[in-house]
Amino acid sequence: MNGGIGMDIKWEIAYYLIEAKKAVDSLWYISNHVGELYDVRQLCNDRRSQYYINTCAVLDKTVCNGKGKKKELTQSDNVIAHIYYERDKHYAHKDSDYRQNYPWTNLEQEAFALQEELRHISKKCKDYLPQVLTLDFVCYDSVQYRYINKIGKSDEEKIKNEKYPFYNKPFIVNGKTIKKKPIYDIETIKSIPTDKHNEYCVIIESGLTFEEDLQNRQDALIKLNVLCGGSLWYARNETMWNECLRLRELGIFDAFGKINRERIKEEIKKGNKIL
């Protein structure tokens, strides 16, 4: 395998990298909500497993693919050696000679360290990944967020109906409703004949929060690129992102990204700058 691989394969590899990134996002979120969650140890181990298995999938399909490549890189690159050790000795197998090495003082430090590891892997494997791909880390776990904030299915539907005027409305073009079969994972795409791809679609769904919006859109675009052979990406604009978070802190946006008009009026009356 080399840098001349097809774009669909590059996006498939990107899928595993972003799955690893989301595991780090989740670990970061858990580190900030330890006192509000049950069985934190198991939650963290599940996320670590997701991180190491998916990161190794990236390596296996790229720089470590080939005779002697893995051995060569594990001997010359401490980050790659650590990642393979954790997967091979503990998360993919349960070897009796495994020895845990935990140099961090808390979970948040671990999350930040894994962010740096993943940036290193992304740089190491850049010839095998789409050029537009970015690692936009967010402190978020969609399942635990709902648990902590006691958001059930009916609550979520109410929030989405209030937030999105066209939620659950049919997609109509030229007076006709478009009907497609949705794709939910990239493995499904592999089983679909190329001449049948136009019968399928990818649902790009906004989330409950800004963080979930970003994760959902990136996930959806990876599937869309594998399905259609494109190179679309949703990268975070740091200036706009930080401004949205600032406005959420002020209460201009609520937790779900809905505009609070009354809060705007209050800030204006106080003479505070909003934008």
Descriptive tags:
single chain, 275 residues, mainly alpha, two-stranded antiparallel sheet, two-stranded parallel sheet, 11 helices, 4 strands, 55% helix
Q: Please, how many helices? A: 11
What structural category do the secondary elements indicate?
Answer: mainly alpha
Can you give the helix content as a percent range?
40-55%
> Got a strand count?
4
Distance between the termini: 49 Å
What does the radius of gyration come to?
Answer: 21 Å
Strand content: under 5%
Low-confidence regions? none
Multimeric status of the protein: single chain
Helices and strands, in N-to-C order?
Answer: HHHHHHHEEEHEHHH
Query: In one word, what is the shape?
Result: globular
Main beta-sheet annotation: 2 strands, antiparallel
Give the averaged pLDDT, no decimals.
92
Strand order of the largest sheet: 1-2
Number of spatially distinct domains: 1
